[in-house]
Amino acid sequence: MTVRIQTADFDVSAEIAALRRNNPKVGAVASFIGVVRDVNEGGAVSEMTLEHYAGMTEKAIEEIIGQARSRWNVLDALVVHRVGRLKPVDQIVLVVVTGSHRGDAFAACEFIMDYLKTRAPFWKKEQTPAGTRWVETRESDDIAAERWRFKG
Amino acid sequence: MTVRIQTADFDVSAEIAALRRNNPKVGAVASFIGVVRDVNEGGAVSEMTLEHYAGMTEKAIEEIIGQARSRWNVLDALVVHRVGRLKPVDQIVLVVVTGSHRGDAFAACEFIMDYLKTRAPFWKKEQTPAGTRWVETRESDDIAAERWRFKG
Amino acid sequence: MVTVLYFARLREALGMGSEQIALPATVRDLEGLRALLVARGSVWEQELAPSKPVRAAVNLAMAHGDTQIADGDEIAFFPPVTGG
Amino acid sequence: MVTVLYFARLREALGMGSEQIALPATVRDLEGLRALLVARGSVWEQELAPSKPVRAAVNLAMAHGDTQIADGDEIAFFPPVTGG
Fold this sequence. Notes:
The complex is a heterotetramer, with 2 copies of chain A (152 residues) and 2 copies of chain C (84 residues). In chain A, helix 2 runs antiparallel to helix 3. With 152 residues, chain A is of the alpha+beta class. In chain A, strands 1-6-8-2 form a 4-stranded mixed β-sheet, with helices on both faces. In chain A, strands 7-5-9-10 form a 4-stranded antiparallel β-sheet, with no helix packed on it. Chain A has a two-stranded antiparallel sheet with strand order 3-4. Chain A is built from 4 helices and 10 strands, in the order E-H-E-E-E-E-H-E-E-E-H-E-E-H. Helices cover 31% and strands 35% of the residues of chain A. Chain C has 84 residues and is an alpha+beta fold. Chain C has one domain: Ubiquitin-like (UB roll) (Roll). Helix content of chain C is 26%, strand content 25%. Chain C contains 3 helices and 5 strands. In chain C, strands 2-1-5-3-4 form a 5-stranded mixed β-sheet. The radius of gyration of chain C is 12 Å and the shape is globular. Chains in contact: A-B, A-D, B-C. At the B-C interface, strand 5, helix 2, helix 3 and strand 9 of B face helix 1, helix 2, strand 3, strand 4 and strand 5 of C. Strand 2 of chain A pairs antiparallel with strand 2 of chain B, so a sheet runs across the interface.
């Protein structure tokens, strides 16, 4: 299991090769890349800044991967998440899961990505023509997060 | 939409970059790589040969992608499938789907892969210590295929 | 005349990858063609038996037993696919 | 003393990223700490109001209002996460 938070970009082919390590048990590699779009919630975005909670981020993602491994038959998993300033078309996050069979690899990859969106402490601030704004959680992302909600 | 059948290997990063074409509407890139394992159905595999039905293969995959596009909100999709002789650890197939949001990209990618396994005319012949054998369809792969079954 | 193609295990078992067949007037669908081939006996009878999981395509599209066929068509018989 | 961290919109609104707080003996859980901060009034009352979707962590783990806290803990308050 590998978790990295970094400002630098990543190369998918190199990351997949490193995760596979030529293990001949790997039959399926599912991956996901999140990318900066030039619009969000209907407004134009020229740049964004990603803030995170160092230390907790890595721990949260390791727990997410641990949960995925306990649910599905997974050989290995990788999450790389960028922080700092990013522009449209830049890569933000990479999730790769290797497995013997595709069903488990697909499910674990999507699970990790969904939970990462609601559990890993990252926050996006977007620069738009109207100024900067913190991105609000989307209702669809937050359903799974309700159980960590700080009860007021 | 791109469909390629080839003997040569492929590079995931380059394929994804070509499919994205710096389109700033792309927010999600889901991909899948199928890989040759060194075992199948419990037996050791040292090499395999992939045969296909040229012409029909491309048509079948284009139809599969068309169905995915009609079901989900997809920006573009790519399938690269290798034929000829392959060894364990070699890449066999690549499916990449780009979309604005991750849910659609994930679903379309898995759909294309599942349908490709049952609808695209490829056949695997494995070389094992006991000789060569044609791979039999797995029941789990074949459920979706039943409606094209040639009624005896 | 129709072109008939055989793939994979079927191609090997039948000992041929393709052939041209002049369709008798009585053969109008895939089921009829299959019966014609089975009537050859030996491996044909064995490999194309109704119990075998044989798939077929007509002009590059997956087809059923009642799919109509006519002169000039390209017809293929093959085992269930195992790609990906 | 506990270390309290604020992130993202909360950090900006409160004008601080972290502070050290000596816990009164009456404050034993996250809910108590939040009430202590709300009692500061102005932006504190506003940003940490019960109606606000504030999340919290204790020692790097997501926490609830009734999560116990003690001297030496690292506590963080932040908006719902928006990574990925």
